[in-house]
Amino acid sequence: xxxxxxxxxxxxxxxxxxxxxxxxxxxxxxxxxxxxxxxxxxxxxxxxxxxxxxxxxxxxxxxxxxxxxxxxxxxxxxxxxxxxxxxxxxxxxxxxxxxxxxxxxxxxxxxxxxx
Amino acid sequence: xxxxxxxxxxxxxxxxxxxxxxxxxxxxxxxxxxxxxxxxxxxxxxxxxxxxxxxxxxxxxxxxxxxxxxxxxxxxxxxxxxxxxxxxxxxxxxxxxxxxxxxxxxxxxx
Lengths: 115, 110
Fold this sequence. Notes:
Strand content of chain A: over 45%
Shape of chain A: globular
Shape of chain B: globular
Number of helices of chain A: 0
Largest interface: A-B, 21 and 24 residues
Largest sheet of chain A: 7 strands, mixed
Helix content of chain B: under 10%
Structural class of chain A: mainly beta
Distance between the termini of chain A: 33 Å
Oligomer: heterodimer
Distance between the termini of chain B: 40 Å
Number of strands of chain B: 11
Order of helices and strands of chain A: EEEEEEEEEEE
Radius of gyration of chain A: 13 Å
Number of strands of chain A: 11
């Protein structure tokens, strides 16, 4: 596609439920990043993939969060036993490579609300 | 704790004037510096990046970097109402991950 796409655009769930957020990067981009952004804050790094492997998952807040990218393209961020504090906009970005300074292009985000 | 600090604003600038946005960072090992613009309810989009000390100009935008002072700024000349947005400063850490500031809200008054 022309840009990074994310689905769903909005997700409302109840505390304790499981959610999956999907990211489809720009075609040919090998690096894919997940961030989350709370109101009035900058994006917070969660995890990044180089190809199929998670090259750095140091930003995942706890073991309820997990992400996969099985074929090196689409990625899914999975959150188990959601908590109200997980409510945020989850942003996905991709870049052509993972070279330092390579431009990251962001998707429109998924707004997650945990009731 | 690696930090990127920005004044949250709002910074109000008259149309046609120069807007000056500032950012400081704590990690001396940072190598790459980015300015992103984020309109309300939208995702960040890259405005400029800078790697070397000094100034880098692109149209109405100038990024300035001073690694000794751990300071990076963005100047917007001939400010337009469409420049009204939140400007996010991002800095790569030693693992080449982006560390983000909280952003400065810029308002250009017609």
